[in-house]
Amino acid sequence: MSEEDAAAAGVEGGEEEVKRIVLPLTVTIGSHATLLLVLQCPEANVAIDACKALLSFAEDEEDGATQIRTTPHQPVEPIQVLVNLLSHEEGELQGLAVTVLATMARTEEDSRLRTVELEGLAPMVKQLAHEDADVQAKAAYSLAMHAIDDPVRLAVFKLDGVDGLVKLLGSDDKDVLRNSCLALTNCAKHPETLPRFFELKAMKALIELLYHENELVQEQAAYTVGYVVASDDNRRDFRRLKGVDALMEQFASPSKVVQQAASFAMSQAAFDFEIRREVRAKDGIRPLSKLLASDEPKVVEQAMMAVANLALDVPTKQAIAVLGGMRFVAGLLSSSDPPVQANACTAIGRLVYDFNSAAEFNEQDGAALMNDIVVAYVASVEKFVAATADLEEGAELPDGVEEPDENVGHCLFEALCSVTEHGIIRQELRQKEGLLERMTKASQFKNPDVADLAATATANFAFDAETRPMMLAAGVVEVMVILSDTDRPEAQMA
């Protein structure tokens, strides 16, 4: 054979040359079940394309996660296929697989729990130390989505996931930082994880991130601070590292998401007496009060909760009053946003503590505003009860019928328990037509928490001789006799 013939035959120097075969194959796959089979292909480039297609299916289909998890007739369980890919040598494939699992976890509890059962968390935690920042970010996000459930939070912690996530707080990549903070936020909701945050000095890194140039990193760092500050050791670190100064600076941020997150963090930190005193000393209530006038309801909601928690001691109540806080808070009782309205009720219950504050509450027409909330809440409960009386358990609600907001109900009657301890407020409230009747009805609602608070608030009116005949006419005595025979101590005391 001549050299020319040998070259033509793919042989050089008598040895056969091995060439990679590239097939120009383009196919349309009509089922995600086929994609799962292709995912198990040993060729990484083929598996990558299949994983991209499966990710699109999981994101685009309303019940994509359920369809993937329950795919029938597969040689290997679908989630197990994805878990296996988390340890693949190809980084891009790892990142795609962990993103599919995150997408499924975000929408379906069964997917989250099944991934845990199949030991999928361990390779995710390992990915946090991957050399590729993109894989780190995706692994952190997936852990965040799986840590929605309390048992999973503890499982992540036991696999040293908190350690890996805290290490990533020193990253230069904004996506890694944001997703790590998101995952740490969810992990911090389990109380057993909080001592480890202190041991790792996580608070220092989090407070530094409050000054990060990216507002989304600032936002997530603030939420993490809000949950981590729940323990005594972490609160001491928060004070020592000037966390109050950092949050106060964020109140003035041009970003509403940062304002909201910083307000949330302050609302949690404000449970500590020393922090409340520091905020007061540094005039931190003033910039926070300005947020109550925001046009973003979620900012107002969190700022209102921060004001309410700062008002847990008398000196701060006085400082809030001096800044006109009662006017802002009372005005928000008429908000159309239920969370804002609920937090305004909580704040009112704490700000009204003596004769002067009660008088100011009346000056701001607080009695009329709270009566309006009672009217709306009781009507919503009665409408819901009437519409669902004949519905079978688990049936869908009729059009136009919504469940009453129990958070509003709780905060409303808890506030009424507080403000009705003041005679001048009771005097204003008893002039509102039908109020006692509605409060008496609320004392019989099925929700025992709301009912007991309504009963207690109603009972406070008995302090006034002028109101007792009105209570008799409203049937209060008969209802209280029935409540005294329940097994609920709060109802019996009312």
**Tally of strands:** 2
Helix content: 55-70%
* Mean pLDDT, all residues: 89
Low-confidence stretches: none
Summarize the main sheet: 2 strands, antiparallel
Tally the helices.
Answer: 33
Shape: globular
Strand content: under 5%
**Lateral arrangement of strands in the main beta sheet:** 1-2
Question: Using only CA atoms, what is the Rg?
Answer: 30 Å
User: What is the structural class?
Assistant: mainly alpha
Q: Alpha-carbon distance between the termini?
A: 109 Å
Question: What's the arrangement of secondary structure elements?
Answer:
Blueprint: H1 3-8, E1 11-12, E2 15-16, H2 32-38, H3 44-60, H4 64-69, H5 78-85, H6 91-107, H7 109-117, H8 121-127, H9 133-146, H10 150-158, H11 161-167, H12 174-187, H13 194-199, H14 202-209, H15 215-228, H16 232-240, H17 243-251, H18 256-269, H19 273-281, H20 285-290, H21 297-310, H22 314-322, H23 325-331, H24 338-351, H25 355-363, H26 366-388, H27 406-419, H28 423-429, H29 435-442, H30 448-460, H31 468-473, H32 476-483, H33 489-493
Antiparallel strand pairs: 1-2
Helix pairs in contact: 2-3, 3-6, 5-6, 6-7, 6-9, 8-9, 9-12, 12-15, 14-15, 15-18, 17-18, 18-21, 21-24, 24-27, 26-27, 26-29, 27-30, 29-30
Fold and architecture overview:
The chain has 494 residues and is mainly α. It is 67% helix and 1% strand. The protein contains 33 helices and two strands. It has helices at residues 3-8, 32-38, 44-60, 64-69, 78-85, 91-107, 109-117, 121-127, 133-146, 150-158, 161-167, 174-187, 194-199, 202-209, 215-228, 232-240, 243-251, 256-269, 273-281, 285-290, 297-310, 314-322, 325-331, 338-351, 355-363, 366-388, 406-419, 423-429, 435-442, 448-460, 468-473, 476-483, 489-493, and strands spanning 11-12, 15-16. A two-stranded antiparallel ribbon has the order 1-2. α14 packs antiparallel against α15. It starts with a helix and ends with a helix. The relative contact order is 0.04.
